[in-house]
Specification:
Blueprint (H helix, E strand, L loop, with lengths): L15 E5 L7 H9 E5 L4 E8 L2 E15 L2 E8 L12 E5 L2 E8 L3 E7 L8
Length: about 120
């Protein structure tokens, strides 16, 4: 039996809510990103990327997803509708851990932007 030190992902694993991973680079910038961006991938393969202000969604960027299998694990492919938000200009890199994964988007304005699955909640001081 072959044991992998990381999770092998299937398309279904990508469905859910995503928030900024504030643990990757903690600080004011991560907090601002957390309060400003989130997205949802639904079971009908739709992706809705939300711009947030004061805890409310003020704009949505839409598209849909597919996956491609590389090295036995699914990777996310975005199909974007115009206009496209700068965070979504490239497909994310999927980093797998044992039992979980996170997504890194290469934004031309921000550099690496880290997302993980999770429910958005206001940051408590």
């Amino acid at each position: 039996m072959l044991l992998f030190p990381y999770s092998l992902l299937e398309k279904e694993d990508f469905y859910g809510d995503y928030i900024i991973d504030r643990n990757q680079f903690p600080g004011k910038q991560a907090d601002w990103q957390y309060n400003s961006f989130r997205f949802v991938i639904s079971h009908n393969d739709a992706i809705n990327f939300y711009i947030m202000r004061n805890g409310h969604e003020v704009r949505v960027y839409k598209g849909f997803i597919t996956t491609v299998v590389l090295n036995k694990s699914a990777h996310l492919v975005l199909h974007r509708q115009e206009p496209v938000h700068h965070i979504l200009t490239m497909d994310p890199t999927v980093y797998r851990r044992k039992g979980s994964f996170y997504l890194v988007f290469d934004s031309p304005k921000f550099g690496n932007v880290f997302f993980k699955k999770g429910e958005w909640k206001p940051i408590s001081d």
